[in-house]
Structure formats: structure tokens, C-alpha cells
């Protein structure tokens, strides 16, 4: 929900599964209410300083000269978008009203280009987001809006606790929505810098929102990248998924809890949510387990997982024997294991990060009154920085493994390559790109 920048309602190759970025709603504003992360062991001593701190090459559209040129041409760029906006339903009067005197916020370019690297393990990420404070506030929010959540569950068949969890993680139940004017922010990104093509649609969608009267312009504020509302919709995602759940004639996800929760549930339903099914289940694996099965492309029925020795902890019953799921090991073989259903995939449609979706599901269960995970997160795992992830991909590629683009994004190709490498060097093949794997590659592993 990135650039979509890890923002709600969108997905792109910029998303980094299992890591935080500046635009992620959790990156900064949840810190006060969350426990400090576990200490992270330092990188191996043989990693060079150039490996750890080499600056990324400046994109041609982000050089000082290019930015200055875009800033000078800003008014002309905005004016040139009028025909496109008119074709999307924005009135001529509305376009001119909302763009009159519009200026770029050049500070946004600093945020776009200098997002800090958050290297957190899945365990640190989930523990930070699923705090006791957020659990308590979630219960209070659901009690205060019980009729809304009941109606949302009946209308869309979506677990209202999951909807509440998204509200809690995205904006801390409305307490941290962002203060950037969305039209100014998306207009800036539509005409300045390296993401113009993407943000032109977002800018025009933002104009449609205020031109239709769904949300007053003065209330349409959010993140620097344009996400807004109680559950952080990007403007184009709003156009696709927002609903007028309170029946007042406007789709106002900023001021109406009913509209925001209804719109969030509608998005999850469109993402494939199946009524009456959990998002997933913590499980315990047998000692002789074949970790090559920990692959989201290898779905099995619960009956088949049971036959392989997979059990739920503390003697809890397995779900419907014919229900299918895949095995997720967010911290590798040393951490908790989960069987993920189609509803986990529905949460991923909101934000395509496994760690994000796991935090949403777990927070929902805790708000409902469930317990924490039985298997602890490993204390000795070191998360890789993006520079290290890129290095790991490059080292694997140099050995003939198919990792896809060496961009620091740990997609399915990289995980498969890591698993193949682990098999070759005698590690447990859990597909986790850890410091241990990188150290093995650096030391000359095959």
C-alpha cells in the first residue's frame, strides 16, 4: 500500500515484503505505542563499508536540474492535465477551482528520494504493530461503533475484527491520518520527479473526489504520497472501492466511520475474502518436515497437511479437512509457522506484504480475545538492509540462480533461489534471505 509506496489500496513492485518504509503508515507514528524491537546483531565483520553504505544512483528525473525544471514547468504541467481530467468526469469549473494557484511541495521530493531503510525482522514488525495499546483501543473502537461493525460483517461477509485491525494499523484508529493536502501532494508527484506517470491518475482521482462532493477539499488530507482517510485509501483505490455505507449520499472515508469501515470491507471482499474462514492458523511442524513445502505456490488441503504431521499448537483442532492453505514461515525454520488461507491473500490485496498481512490477522485475533503466538520469534535473526538484499541477489545470480531483478525486493524468484542454494550447501531450505545465507555466499559457498 508502495508507490503505491506501501500505502493502502494499491500494490507495486516498490513494495518490500516484510520491511517498513517511510510511507508505510506504521513507520513513524506507531513508535510511541509499541514496544522497542529486539536488539539486532551487527552485520558480519567481513562486510565492507562500501557494501553497507553505498549510495543509490540518482534517478535522472531526481537530479537538482531536473527537479528545478519540473518546478518551473509545474503550472503548465497541471494545465495540460485538464483534458485528461475532463475525460475522467472532472468538471471544467472544478478543475480550475481546485488547481488555481496550486504550487508544488518540493519537500515531498526529499521524502520520495530519501526514504530511510527500516531493517526489521517479521517478528519485530508484528510485535511493534500488535501492541497491547492497539489491542485495547481496537476493542474500545469496536464497542463504540458496534452497529457499524455488525452491519459491515452482515453486508460483506468480511470479519469485522480484520476491518478494525486495518483501521488500527493504518491510522491508529483515526489518530494519525496525515496532514498533507492530497490534491497538492498528488499534483506535486504528478508533475515533479520520477513517478509522474503513476501519480497523474492519482491526482485526477483526487480532483474527482472533491468535484463530486464526496469529501470537502479542506478535509482531504493524508500522507505525503496521497493516501487518506481512516484506513488510508489512495485516490484511485477510493474510486474503485469506496462505498456510501451510512447512506448520506457521499463516500466519505475521512469523516464517516461507517463509510471507512464499509469501504475497507468492500475492498477485502473484492480481494477474494471468503465468509466464515480464518485468515490462517499457527501450526507446529514435525522434526522431519520437508521445508521445500514452505512455498505459497504449493497449496494443500488441511487433511494433507495433517498427514504430513502438521498440527495446531496445544491440541487445537484443525479446520475443515477440505480447506486449502499454503505454509508460510515468516521468520524461517526457527520461528512460528502458519497455514494461510484465501483470506490471507485477501488481506494481501490491501497491502502486498506478508508481514503486514500477518500483523493484521494477528491483531484481529487479539482484539477478538485470542492469545499470542505459541512459538516465539527467533532472537538471533538479523534482518538484511536493502543494500544487503541486493548483494545477496547479485551473488546468487553470479552462481547461476534465477533471482529476477537484483533490486533488493525479495520476491518469489529470490526466495526460490535462496531455497535452492540452501539445499546445495546443507542448510534447512526455508527460503529465508538471512544474514547466515549472505555470509555463506560471501565466504564462497557453492
TrEMBL record:
InterPro entries: Lysozyme-like_dom_sf, MltB-like, MltB_2, Peptidoglycan-bd-like, PGBD-like_sf, PGBDSf, SLT_2. The lineage of its organism: Bacteria, Pseudomonadati, Pseudomonadota, Alphaproteobacteria, Hyphomicrobiales. Residues 386-441 form the Peptidoglycan binding-like domain. PANTHER family: LYTIC MUREIN TRANSGLYCOSYLASE (PTHR30163:SF8), MEMBRANE-BOUND LYTIC MUREIN TRANSGLYCOSYLASE B (PTHR30163). One of its GO terms (biological process) is peptidoglycan catabolic process. It comes from the Bacteria. One of its GO terms (molecular function) is peptidoglycan lytic transglycosylase activity. Residues 19-62 are annotated as: Disordered. Residues 25-35, 45-62 have a biased composition (Low complexity). Residues 74-365 form the Transglycosylase SLT domain. This is Lytic murein transglycosylase. Pfam families: PG_binding_1, SLT_2.
Amino acid at each position: 500500500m508502495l508507490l503505491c509506496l506501501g500505502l493502502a489500496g494499491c500494490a507495486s513492485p516498490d513494495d518490500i515484503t516484510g520491511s517498513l518504509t517511510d510511507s508505510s503508515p506504521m513507520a513513524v507514528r506507531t513508535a510511541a505505542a509499541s514496544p522497542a524491537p529486539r536488539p539486532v546483531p551487527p552485520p558480519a565483520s567481513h562486510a565492507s563499508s562500501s557494501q553497507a553504505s553505498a549510495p543509490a544512483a540518482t534517478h535522472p528525473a531526481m537530479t537538482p536540474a531536473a527537479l528545478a525544471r519540473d518546478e518551473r514547468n509545474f503550472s503548465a504541467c497541471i494545465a495540460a492535465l485538464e483534458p485528461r481530467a475532463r475525460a475522467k468526469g472532472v468538471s471544467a469549473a472544478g478543475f480550475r477551482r481546485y488547481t488555481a494557484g496550486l504550487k508544488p511541495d518540493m519537500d515531498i521530493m526529499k521524502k520520495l528520494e530519501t526514504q530511510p531503510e527500516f531493517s526489521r525482522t517479521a517478528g519485530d514488525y508484528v510485535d511493534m504493530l500488535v501492541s497491547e495499546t492497539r489491542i485495547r483501543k481496537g476493542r474500545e473502537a469496536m464497542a463504540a461503533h458496534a452497529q457499524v461493525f455488525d452491519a459491515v460483517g452482515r453486508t460483506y461477509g468480511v470479519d469485522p475484527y480484520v476491518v478494525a485491525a486495518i483501521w488500527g494499523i493504518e491510522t491508529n484508529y483515526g489518530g494519525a491520518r496525515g496532514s498533507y493536502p492530497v490534491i497538492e501532494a498528488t499534483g506535486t508527484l504528478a508533475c515533479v520527479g520520477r513517478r509522474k506517470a503513476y501519480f497523474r491518475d492519482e491526482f485526477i482521482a483526487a480532483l474527482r473526489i472533491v468535484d463530486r462532493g464526496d469529501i470537502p477539499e479542506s478535509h482531504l488530507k493524508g500522507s505525503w504520497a496521497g493516501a487518506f482517510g481512516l484506513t488510508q485509501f489512495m485516490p484511485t483505490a477510493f474510486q474503485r472501492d469506496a462505498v456510501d455505507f451510512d447512506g448520506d449520499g457521499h463516500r466519505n472515508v475521512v469523516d464517516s466511520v461507517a463509510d471507512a469501515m464499509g469501504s475497507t470491507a468492500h475492498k477485502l471482499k473484492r480481494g477474494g475474502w471468503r465468509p466464515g474462514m480464518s485468515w490462517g492458523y499457527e501450526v507446529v511442524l514435525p522434526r522431519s518436515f520437508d521445508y521445500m513445502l514452505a512455498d505459497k505456490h504449493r497449496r494443500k488441503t488441511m487433511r494433507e497437511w495433517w498427514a504430513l504431521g502438521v498440527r495446531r499448537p496445544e491440541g487445537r483442532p484443525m479446520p475443515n479437512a477440505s480447506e486449502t492453505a499454503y505454509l508460510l514461515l515468516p521468520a524461517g525454520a526457527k520461528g512460528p509457522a502458519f497455514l494461510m488461507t484465501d483470506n490471507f491473500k485477501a488481506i494481501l490485496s490491501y497491502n502486498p506484504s506478508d508481514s503486514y498481512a500477518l500483523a493484521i490477522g494477528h491483531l484481529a485475533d487479539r482484539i477478538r480475545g485470542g492469545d499470542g503466538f505459541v512459538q516465539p520469534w527467533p532472537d538471533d535473526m538479523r534482518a538484511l538492509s536493502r543494500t544487503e538484499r541486493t548483494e545477496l541477489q547479485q551473488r546468487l545470480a553470479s552462481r547461476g540462480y534465477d533471482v529476477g531483478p537484483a533490486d533488493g525486493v525479495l520476491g518469489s524468484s529470490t526466495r526460490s533461489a535462496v531455497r535452492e542454494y540452501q539445499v546445495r550447501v546443507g542448510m534447512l531450505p526455508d527460503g529465508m534471505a538471512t544474514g547466515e545465507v549472505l555470509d555463506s555466499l560471501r565466504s564462497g559457498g557453492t
